[in-house]
Amino acid sequence: MKNINILGISGSLRADSTNTLILKTLAAFLPENINFQMFEGLDQIPHFSPGLSENDGVIKFKKAIRQADGVIICTPEYAFGVPGTLKNALDWTVSTGDLNDKPVSAISASPLNTGGDKALASLLLTLTALGTLRNEESSLSIPNIKLKINDLQQITDEPTLHALKAQCDNLLKIIG
Fold it and tell me: In whole angstroms, what is the distance from residue 167 CA to residue 121 CA?
């Protein structure tokens, strides 16, 4: 069985981010032949402008995407949208098509009842523009995330854990 590389991208830069926790939790559901890597360095990517040269952060980001068989993005919602650093990083891939035909799962999480639904909708629009491979099961919105995490920073809510496993299974199905 071939090794499969999955890249996790957290839309939050906070060290104690629930989005990063979600990705780490999700990685535990992946089979042994899956290599899961979290992208580190979103904050090293400069603002996107077609005239700018790529710096080391952009090169590292694009390389990580190219080496991945699939990508899982988990984002918070800021001002009803995707955090600027995440959107900015994705914008750097427009001209090179690094995400074109790449299997992707999109997850949003929020302490609010809405689950970051507006950020998820925005992210899905961007992923559509970038030509990613997804199906009707390739996204998940997690409401009230703070109530689903214990004092040890573990997700303990069974329906949420089941939904995260379903995201893994679906992504692997798309990867083939």
Answer: 17
